[in-house]
Write a sequence for this structure.
């Protein structure tokens, strides 16, 4: 039996999320063809053809740099992500990174793993060898945080609890995140100030053109020679060649990141983890649940919540009406043309919502009576309409 919606998953997505797609109406899986929506984690979609059937893409996670967002916007396809759903998991790994760096934990564990002999010999080797792993304590040191979004705020607040001084920089901090940021976090006047002052510096910005190579040769040169750089955001935010050069010259103390590469994974002053930031059961569940709910909201009701390229458009369904979901360019007279078209058919509009973001707008129109393919053809023919769908009556 053909089901109403088809979802193609391009990564392993938590069952706690997938089970929210009602079985009787959704076909879900990696082999689904002609999907209405794609559900991904880190799968790279830039070079993959996105089928014409796709109405929406959801990223069960934070970063959408693996998705051609601009091209999807041009096609009128919303790209959803799951803000904050994995922030605690990343915060915990960043804290682990702090301790890994301050107490030389990975080389120390490697040393212990390599010990040979009987217990007495091991005990002697431990006492002789441990001095090479002497670390430093965190209270009184300064943590610099670049990017105070869902993750940066949690890292900053938790670091205060460990006795660190925290200095942060985020010119675009949201009101929501500012509310959650402890007043004890000092606001830096510039990014450079953070680089200069930090004993440990951590970056929590998205990978976009303006953040690519943000940790550059020039900025690393501002850092203390003993400073440690943490990168649990994206590899490309850091100029790896510049980091390796500074580590080799002794002008940077260490680099801990979530992104192994040929440049860093074997470097004696680098610790890299295999992109584990969001890999907890809790984060995987949170992200999947949120992403599935976002997709269902859009497919079933035309609602847009947490899209990175679309305006928020949330309008409760009007019982008994059919809904037109129109994605259009944000130009004058779109709503006028849509409502005229409906009125000329002698149909009443029970409810209407028009929301815009940049060059794009979403128009939801709840209409009394039938809506056939003809009205959709007419809507799609309007200059500036990118897509139009009609949804069955709400219960
Ligand atoms: N390692 C992992 O597994 C993992 C997991 C989750 C997220 N991430 C990465 O971390 C990034 C941040 O996640 P988030 O949930 O905190 O996102 P978020 O959108 O809540 O926060 C990002 C913050 O960065 C700020 N920002 C952007 N450009 C900046 C700049 N040039 N200087 C200073 N601040 C700037 C924004 O204003 C925003 O407040 C994601 O985009 C993703 O790439 C990695
Ligand atoms: O941006 C994110 O949310 C993280 O990088 C997590 O990626 P993952 O879902 O592939 O673990």
């Amino acid at each position: 039996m053909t089901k109403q919606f088809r979802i193609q998953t391009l990564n392993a997505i938590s069952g706690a999320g997938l089970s929210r797609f009602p079985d009787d109406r959704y076909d879900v899986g990696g082999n689904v063809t002609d999907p209405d929506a794609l559900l991904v984690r880190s799968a790279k979609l830039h070079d993959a053809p996105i089928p014409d059937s796709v109405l929406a893409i959801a990223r069960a996670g934070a970063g959408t740099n693996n998705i051609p967002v601009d091209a999807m916007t041009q096609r009128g396809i919303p790209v959803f992500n799951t803000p904050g759903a994995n922030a605690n998991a990343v915060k915990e790994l960043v804290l682990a990174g702090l301790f890994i760096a301050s107490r030389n934990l990975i080389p120390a564990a490697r040393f212990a793993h390599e010990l040979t002999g009987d217990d007495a010999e091991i005990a002697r080797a431990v006492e002789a060898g441990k001095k090479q792993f002497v670390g430093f304590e965190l209270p009184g040191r300064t943590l610099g945080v670049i990017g105070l979004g869902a993750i940066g705020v949690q890292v900053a607040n938790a670091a205060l609890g460990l006795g660190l001084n925290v200095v942060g920089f985020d010119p675009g901090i949201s009101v929501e995140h500012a509310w959650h940021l402890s007043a004890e976090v000092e606001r830096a006047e510039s990014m450079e100030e953070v680089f200069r002052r930090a004993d440990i510096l951590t970056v929590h910005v998205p990978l976009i053109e303006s953040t690519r190579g943000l940790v550059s040769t020039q900025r690393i040169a501002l850092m203390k020679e003993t400073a440690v750089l943490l990168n649990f955001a994206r590899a490309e935010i850091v100029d790896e060649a510049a980091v390796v050069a500074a580590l080799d010259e002794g002008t940077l103390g260490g680099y801990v990141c979530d992104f192994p590469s040929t440049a860093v994974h074997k470097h004696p002053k680098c610790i890299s983890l295999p992109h584990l930031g969001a890999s907890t059961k809790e984060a995987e569940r949170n992200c999947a649940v949120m992403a599935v709910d976002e997709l269902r909201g859009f497919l079933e009701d035309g609602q847009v919540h947490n899209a990175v390229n679309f305006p928020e458009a949330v309008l409760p369904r009007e019982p008994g009406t059919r809904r037109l979901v129109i994605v259009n360019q944000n130009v004058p007279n779109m709503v006028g043309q849509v409502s005229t078209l409906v009125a000329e058919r002698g149909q009443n509009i029970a409810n209407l919502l028009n929301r815009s973001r940049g060059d794009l707008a979403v128009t939801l129109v709840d209409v009394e009576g039938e809506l056939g393919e003809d009205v959709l053809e007419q809507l799609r023919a309007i200059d500036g309409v990118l897509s139009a769908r009609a949804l069955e009556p709400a219960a």
